[in-house]
Amino acid sequence: MEEEEHAETSGQYIEHHLTNLQVCRRDGEWVWNHCEAGFIDMTTINVDSMAFALILGLVFTLLFRGVAKRATAGVPGKLQTAVEMLVGIVEESVRGAFQHKNKLVAPLALTIFAWVFLMNLMDLIPIDLLPEMASAAGVPYLKVVPTTDINITFAMSLSVFVLVLFYSVKVKGLGGFLKELTFHPMPVPTKGVGIIAAPIFIVFNFVLEGVSLLAKPLSLSLRLFGNMYAGEVIFILIALIGWFQLPLHFAWAVFHILVITLQAYIFMMLTIVYLNQAHDTGEH
Question: Using CA atoms, how far apart are residues 269 and 204, in angstroms rounded to an integer?
Fold first, then answer.
C-alpha cells in the first residue's frame, strides 16, 4: 500500500509539473484550468507559455537594444563582447548557408537563436522554484519553459513556413513555384507518346514535393519540442529522488546546457536553409 501511495503521489507530482496554466471559453464563459485541451487545441490559451515567451522576447529586445546604444569603439565590456561574438557567429552561419541577398535573413536568424535560447534556458531554473512561488500566490499551475509547449514551437515554425511560402512566390513567381511543385523531382515528358503520362508524373511530383514542403514546419516544431520536453521530464524525475538529487541534477544541468544551445542553433540553421531553398531558382 505504501508503494502504491508513493507511486500515486509521484504521478500527481509529474502531472502537476507538466500541466499548463490554461484559460478557455466554455459555455459562453471564460474558465481557468477546466479546458480539457487536446495535444494542439486552438480554443485554449496556455497563459504561462505565452507570458514567458513574450517576457523573454522583451528581455532579448531590450538587452540587445541597450548594448547597441552603449556600444563603444574602444575596449568593449563583457556584455558587448558576448553580443558581438554572437552576432559574428550568426553572420558567419548566414554567409555559409544562405547564397542570396536578403537583409531580413541575418536579423531573423539572430532573433530566432537568441529567443529560442532564452526560452530553453528556463529549463535550468530549479524545477520547483517558480511553481511553488506561483502556488503561494494562488496560481495552481505554472510551466516555465515555453519550448516544452508544442503550441509555441509550432507557432514559431509556422511563422518561418509563411516566410518560406512568401519568398518562394516572390522570387520564383506563382507559376515558377507551382512548376517547382509539379515538375520535380521527376522530369515530366512534354513531347512524344510520353506526354500521355504527364498528368501522372505531375500528380506524383506534387505529392512528393507537397509532403516535403509540409514537413518543414513539422520538423522544426517537433524537433525542438521533443528535445526540450524530454529534458524537462528528466529534471522532474530527478527531483523525485529528494535530497540525493543534487549531484545528478547538476550533472544533467551541465549536459543540458549543450542541448539548450544546440536546439536553438539547429532551429536557426534550418530556418536559414529553408529560406535559402525558397530563394533558389536553380541558377546557383
Answer: 29
